[in-house]
Amino acid sequence: MSQLQSLRGMVDLLPDHTRRWQAVEAVARAHFRRSGLAEIRTPLLEVTELFARGIGEATDVVGKEMYTFADRGDRSCTLRPEGTASVVRSAIQHGLLSQGVQKLWYAGPMFRYERPQAGRQRQFHQIGVECLGVSTARSDVEVIALAWDLLRDLGLSGLELQINSLGTLEDRQRYRQQLVNWLEARVDQLDVDSQQRLITNPLRILDSKNPSTQALLIDAPTLLQALSQESAQRFESVQLLLNQLEIPFELNPRLVRGLDYYGHTAFEITSDQLGAQATVCGGGRYDGLVQQLGGPPTAAVGWALGMERLMLVLEAAAKANPDGAAARLTATPAPDLYLVNRGEQAETLALALARQLRSAGVSVELDGSGAALGKQFKRADRSGSAWAAVIGDEEAESGQFRLKPLLAEGEEHGLALNDLDAMVAVLKTTT
RNA sequence: GCGGGCGUCGCCAAGUGGUUAAGGCAGCGGCUUGUGGUGCCGCCAUUCGGGGGUUCAAAUCCCCUCGCUCGCCCCA
Q1: A16 CA to B12 C1', in Å?
Q2: Interatomic distance A369 CA / B8 C1' (Å)
């Protein structure tokens, strides 16, 4: 390819898409505002050590998926592969944690060097929530409910909430040993990948997609059985609360998340519309992370949702239900008024009028072509605008013009060019 | 990183070795110098992702390369 093009896995968002993104982001922001969350914006570039220490040296994300390079000062820098580590770093650095509970949200691009596939890109976008300084089961559920309600408001269907408890570090270590013992007696029945993981990260064998491995695991000891009394009780509370809030969920004892910092509640929201990369939103509790990054002991929960995947689900929902909320969000808006104009004096007049109307809150498409009026009207029609008006030599001469309805038969409104209030009244009441 | 499929105009798409590479949508111009939606007419790929090779002859066959796509790995 000799033509310049975007890097592999780096995707342009064209106007057709940015409209939908903005609509979705607006819904998300409204939810965050009502839930008392504040936005935080952190740099895209961080020192590599942040992610190595935060996410876990042994994870795939850190081990083989990071965009890491040395800057001119020979510091090792990394394009953030996820948001949580940065948010925590920022909260520690600026002393936010000594100012009480921090309820934060963020949105922006993340970078992971992976082979692109459906719902997976090298630069992708997440909207995330981090709630720092609270440890109750209730806060887990509040955070999960926020994600659930947000997705529901977008008119999405076919979503499933899966939850699990990863317990405490001690719980996991104890269980890890049980699982390894059990699996080692059956190594020959494991697939090659899982045999490898038996050494590197045994818990990850649990969510292997290999059917025979899954069949084998049916009789394996589960993480839930290995939970301490307190951990088990805590998880009971989470489930009880979800039931009380009537948020449907699926208990998935195999749900293990790939980032080291999770403990206790872990959850994912998956869609049946996405193929292999089914997770739209994932998160959980990460009580140890703040301390691990040099901050005070601080409990925390959060989640991140993938915008690209969300948009795929939204588009599917819009297609399946043309009258639903999802379809409304994906619709392209038409201008309130399409202004046809021609003639030197008239074009200036039209420009001025468009400006006045826009200031008054009316959306105006001003035809800038200077083409024949018939031509301009064709474009007016295609714009989907409910109204059109012509400003030409006659109108410039008389100071009068007419608003013409385009979508349905109706009467034209003759108005004075300087009667802005009357124009706004017509345009706003009927659109 | 590994395995499968694919790559013809902005989008969809016919063509699978032989004169000028269909068609549709969109776009632009006209029929119609001041009034749209329908209709009709015209324009819109010297070139088939890129490079090399085979052949008298390639979009069509071969090799390399880039990209997309599906799955694995992993995750949003």
Answers
A1: 18
A2: 33
Q: What are phi and psi of A186, to 5 degrees?
A: -130, 25
Is strand B less than 7 A from the beta carbon of A118?
yes
pLDDT at A136: 96
The CATH architecture one would assign to domain A337-430 is 3-Layer(aba) Sandwich (3.40)
How far apart are the C-alpha atoms of A275 and A97, rounded to whole Å?
Answer: 40
Cα(A285)–Cα(A299) distance, integer angstroms? 8
Mean pLDDT of A80-91: 96
Q: What is the dihedral of CA A251, A257, A263, A269, to 10 degrees?
A: -50
Name which residue leads in pLDDT, A330 or A263: A263
Among chain A residues 9 through 28, which have CB within 7 angstroms of nucleic chain B? 9
Residues 27-66 of chain A sitting with CB below 7 angstroms of strand B: 59-61, 65
- Residue A49: per-residue pLDDT: 94
Model confidence at A104: pLDDT above 90: yes
How many other C-beta atoms lie within 10 A of the C-beta of residue A366? 19
Residue range A271-283, pLDDT digits in tens = 988 877 789 999 9
Q: Where are the domains of chain A?
A: 15-167+227-327, 337-430
Do A15-167+227-327 and A337-430 show the same overall fold? Answer: no
**Chosen CATH of A15-167+227-327 out of 3.40.50.300, 3.30.2130.10, 3.30.930.10, 3.40.50.720:** 3.30.930.10
pLDDT bin (cut points 50, 70, 90) of residue A210 is confident
